[in-house]
Amino acid sequence: MTRQLKEALPDGEYWATCRERNEIAAALNGHSKVFPQARVIVKDGWASFYRDGVEVWACNPVYAKSNFIIQA
């Protein structure tokens, strides 16, 4: 198994919480649309972030796992 697959989130639904402490830090890292928390659905190698049922941001599951606090 490749390293990337081991570090990726498996398909499913999660809550993603930004690691940044405030909106300015989140904006500097490109995570402002997710701050402070958003629902994330991982499917087919893509992590899509939702607020109020609308997709606001997306990335690959390895990036999501590395840059957000992920909770089932």
Report what the structure shows.
The chain has a single domain (3-71), classed as SH3 type barrels (Roll). The protein is 25% helix and 42% strand. It has helices spanning 3-7, 23-28, 61-67, and strands at 12-18, 37-43, 46-51, 54-59, 68-71. It has a five-stranded antiparallel sheet, with helices on one face. The longest helix has 7 residues, at 61-67. The chain is globular, with a radius of gyration of 12 Å. The protein starts with a helix and ends with a strand. The mean pLDDT is 93.
Fold topology:
Elements: H1 3-7, E1 12-18, H2 23-28, E2 37-43, E3 46-51, E4 54-59, H3 61-67, E5 68-71
Antiparallel strand pairs: 1-2, 1-5, 2-3, 3-4
SSE series? HEHEEEHE
**Order of strands side by side in the largest beta sheet?**
4-3-2-1-5
Report low-confidence residues grouped into runs of 5 or more.
none
Radius of gyration: 12 Å
Share of β-strand residues: 35-45%
Summed up:
With 72 residues, the chain is an alpha+beta fold. The chain has helices spanning 3-7, 23-28, 61-67, and strands at 12-18, 37-43, 46-51, 54-59, 68-71.
What are its keywords?
25% helix, alpha+beta, SH3 type barrels, 72 residues, 5 strands, five-stranded antiparallel sheet, single chain
